[in-house]
Amino acid sequence: MKRTLLFFTVLMFISVSIFATGNAVGFGTASQTMPVSVLIPKIVFIHVDNASHGVTFDFSTMVNYPDFVNPYPWWYLPTDPVASPHVDLRVWTNDNDGYTVTVKGDQDFAPELPLSDLYFAGAGEVKTANGSAVAGGNWNAFSTVDFTIADENSKTNGFVSYNQDYELKIDGDENAGAFNTVTITYTITGK
């Protein structure tokens, strides 16, 4: 009897120890359950294809200059990249509440060439006609304050493109030389 009691005491102690460590013991079958959790945070993603080399307006390679028929201002498209879109912009988010895409610049090119003389629009927008005092179509002037390109109330369905074209207004009072490089910042923000 003492031997049987000792056996059951040892067996009970082993069983309690095994169950306490997350194991199961049985005769013929043993099972145990465990929870599985999935946690996905709100994620936003933005990609600018040509972010490393940017956009360039190189007037040393241009051949069209203002004339008497169409006086200043003249409007120029970039020399690099030449083809539209000048900026390949794609965004993605899983935020069910939606997202906002904004853009801004950081400084003027020079005192006589303000940031606001650089314009952007959706890819494929028609260039403003030379001699026009204001930008035509859907062109918007850059600023150091965020400008909203998109404001959506749901997540994206895959990647969404907001490709951009640029144009630059030249008034004729710009000095020769290399100007400040302006940094353009595109931002996606979940809601």
Name its key features.
elongated; mainly beta; 2 domains; 191 residues; four-stranded antiparallel sheet; single chain; 1 helix; Immunoglobulin-like; three-stranded antiparallel sheet; 10 strands
Structural account:
By secondary structure, the protein is mostly beta strands. The chain folds into two domains: 1-34; 44-190, Immunoglobulin-like. Helices cover 10% and strands 26% of the residues. The chain is built from one helix and ten strands, in the order αββββββββββ. The chain has one helix at 2-20, and strands at 44-48, 74-76, 89-93, 99-105, 118-122, 140-141, 147-152, 160-161, 164-170, 184-190. The strands form three sheets. Strands 2-9-5-6 form a four-stranded antiparallel sheet, with no helix packed on it. A three-stranded antiparallel sheet has the order 1-3-8, with no helix packed on it. A three-stranded antiparallel sheet has the order 7-4-10, with no helix packed on it. The longest helix is centred in the N-terminal third of the chain and has 19 residues, at 2-20. 15% of the residues are buried. Residues 4-11 and 13-19 have low confidence and may be disordered.
